[in-house]
C-alpha cells in the first residue's frame, strides 16, 4: 500500500484499523477482509480495496507475529477466557465481541433460566488493544445493570482478581486492566 496513493493520514488510519481488528483475535480472515474493504471504499475511494485490504491484513499479522515472540506463555486474554468460561458454567450468558448491547440482550433473552449476562463489544476489545482496559458489562436476567455490593458483581470481581486481572466497577461496568495479547490463527 503506497501512502502517496491514498494519503498519509488515511493510510495511518487504515493501518490502525487493521491492527485492532487483527489483534482483537475474534475476527476471521473473511470478516477482516470485509471490514477493511469497506473502510478502504469509504476512506480511500481511489484505491483498489481488493489489493489494499490483504496488504493491510498481512502487515498487521506480521507485526503481531513479531510481538508474540515476547509474550508470556499465559496472557491476560487467556486468563480472561478462563473467567468467562467459569461464568458460563455458573449459568451466566457470556457474549464476546458483540456488535452492540442489542445483540447481547437477544442472547440473554433467548437463554433458558440465565443467571445474568456478561458481555463486551468489538469496540471494547479495540480499546483494550490500544489502551489496556476492557469494559465488561454485567446485567441481571431482567437486563438491569448490576450495582455495587450485589453478590453477582462481587463474585465476578473476585474471579477476575483470582486470575490476576485487576478490575474495578465504575459507572455501571467492570473495567478490567488487561494487556491484550491474544494469539490468533487465520
Automatic annotation (TrEMBL):
InterPro entries linked to this entry: DUF6891
Name assigned to this protein: DUF6891 domain-containing protein
Sequence ranges assigned to domain DUF6891 in this UniProt record: 10-183
Lineage per the UniProt record: Bacteria, Bacillati, Actinomycetota, Actinomycetes, Propionibacteriales
Pfam families named among the record's database cross-references: DUF6891
Amino acid at each position: 500500500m503506497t501512502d502517496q496513493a491514498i494519503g498519509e493520514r488515511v493510510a495511518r488510519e487504515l493501518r490502525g484499523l487493521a491492527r485492532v481488528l487483527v489483534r482483537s483475535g475474534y475476527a476471521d480472515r473473511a470478516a477482516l477482509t470485509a471490514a477493511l474493504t469497506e473502510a478502504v471504499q469509504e476512506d480511500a475511494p481511489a484505491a483498489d480495496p481488493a489489493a489494499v485490504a490483504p496488504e493491510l491484513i498481512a502487515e498487521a499479522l506480521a507485526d503481531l507475529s513479531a510481538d508474540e515472540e515476547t509474550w508470556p506463555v499465559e496472557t491476560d486474554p487467556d486468563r480472561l477466557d478462563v473467567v468467562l468460561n467459569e461464568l458460563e458454567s455458573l449459568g451466566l450468558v457470556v457474549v464476546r465481541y458483540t456488535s452492540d448491547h442489542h445483540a447481547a440482550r437477544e442472547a440473554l433473552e433467548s437463554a433458558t433460566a440465565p443467571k445474568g449476562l456478561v458481555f463486551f463489544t468489538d469496540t471494547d476489545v479495540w480499546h483494550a488493544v490500544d489502551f489496556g482496559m476492557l469494559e465488561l458489562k454485567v446485567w441481571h436476567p431482567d437486563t438491569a445493570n448490576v450495582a455495587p455490593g450485589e453478590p453477582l458483581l462481587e463474585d465476578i470481581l473476585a474471579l477476575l482478581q483470582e486470575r490476576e486481572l485487576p478490575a474495578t466497577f465504575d459507572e455501571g461496568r467492570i473495567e478490567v486492566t488487561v494487556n491484550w495479547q491474544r494469539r490468533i490463527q487465520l
